[in-house]
Amino acid sequence: MSWNRVAVVGAGLIKFGELFEQSFETMAAGAFRAACDAVDHGFDPQSIDAAFVATQRGTLWGQEGISGNTVPTALGLAGIPCTRVENACPSGSDAFRVGAMAVASGVHDIVLVIGVEKMRDKSTEEGLLSRAAAGHPILTRGETAPVLFAPFATRHMYEFGTTREMLASVAVKNHHNGALDPYAHFQSEITVEQALAAPAVCSPLHLLDCCPQTDGAAATILVPAERAHEFTDNPVYVAGFGVATDHPYLHEKTSFVGLDATVLASQRAYTMAGVGPSDIDIAEVHDCFTITEILDIEDLGFVDKGKGGVASLEGETSLTGRIPVNPSGGLLAKGHPIGATGVAQMTECWWQLRGQAEGRQVEIRNGYALQHNVGGRGSGVSVVNILTNRA
Fold first, then answer.
1. pLDDT in tens, 278-318
2. Phi, psi for residue 162 in degrees, rounded to 5
3. Considering 89, 210, 211, 349, which one is annotated as catalytic?
4. 147 located within any domain
5. What single-letter DSSP state applies at residue 361?
6. Residue 293 backbone dihedrals phi, psi, to 5 degrees
7. CA 175/CA 181 separation, integer angstroms
8. Count of domains in the chain?
9. Which of 185, 336, 349, 372 is catalytic?
10. Could you tell me if residue 337 is inside a domain?
């Protein structure tokens, strides 16, 4: 049975990129204004009665005490309840889920879900991401994000004949989409030849197989479905969501051709929404690396296991393909400011379902959009949210 108790009536983000000139709070304020301005019938920011802030600032910067609870003050909302959600790469996705549950429960009426991240003010050498991925001092020594995902690419190639050209096709497609997205970090197209010739990072992954470190912020406004008409004549509803976890270390994995947490999370989201993969019109998925998108579209049920590379190469996931994936440009082109990523993906889904995605608008047939993140040590957590424009 569908679960349309919550409506998304506003969503917005700032342009992603290397935003050295903007502070954490300035970025949050920009995304907040964008979400408020997007409410069709006008919106009083003071009507917000709770906020959920997604950020990895605590882990990345060692500032747990001030990372989330400063945001309401910066937005002129001092006094409201505020909860920081930090759940690895799906932090924004999970904040959205928790915000939706807060509205559905009746505890809060109008909820702000906002994700914000500063990634570029510190270098990798200073330990920014190594701190986030820290694990056992011996078992994980030398591991970085590319090191964690490269074995999946190698095994997928071995079992299914996936090629580097197939990986490159994901990057080419997402950079094409990013060139159409005014909010994307990278807004230029690339060729398969450029992707193949890019410097190696961790075999078989090369530079253009990897997403950038990016600054950014995004926000959504949630209300009870029965109040949606007060804010818009074109509402989008929360249809379902799912979360799942998996073992954090590579030696504990049961498979290197799929991510079990994504499979479980998607099954739970599909069941809650009362739909299946064939009902989804557009998907924003976690493409931190090109192989990740290939794994995602298989684990989410869009293509058979082992066929993700072929589907990408043949254009099934393009804007005009059978199942458009990452019309925003994905993490590869739009960027991956961790706390903001999932909320920005939700914003893209919101625009697509409302027919407002401008030059990258896909055909909406069934009225469902899916958003997905996977992350944490060893891709140990996955979140899937499903939105619909069907009341």
1. 999 999 999 999 999 999 999 999 999 999 999 999 999 99
2. -60, 140
3. 89
4. no
5. P
6. -65, -40
7. 10
8. 1
9. 336
10. yes
89 is catalytic: yes
Q: What is the residue type of 324?
A: P
Q: What is the pTM of this model?
A: 0.95
Nearest-10 crossing angle of helices 290-299, 164-178? 90
CB 348 within 8 A of CB 261: no
CATH number of the structural domain spanning residue 79: 3.40.47.10
Pairing outcome for strands 236-245 and 381-388: antiparallel
Residues 154-189 have pLDDT tens digits of 999 999 999 999 999 999 999 999 999 999 999 999
Is 75 a member of any domain?
yes
pLDDT tens-digit readout, 109-159: 999 999 999 998 876 655 566 555 666 666 666 678 898 899 999 999 999
Position 131, amino acid = R
Per the structure, the complete domain to which residue 271 belongs is given by: 6-126+210-388
Going by C-alpha positions, the residue among 349, 316, 11, 15 that lies closest to residue 187 is 15
Distance CA 231, CA 213 (A): 35
Residue 169 inside a domain? The answer is no
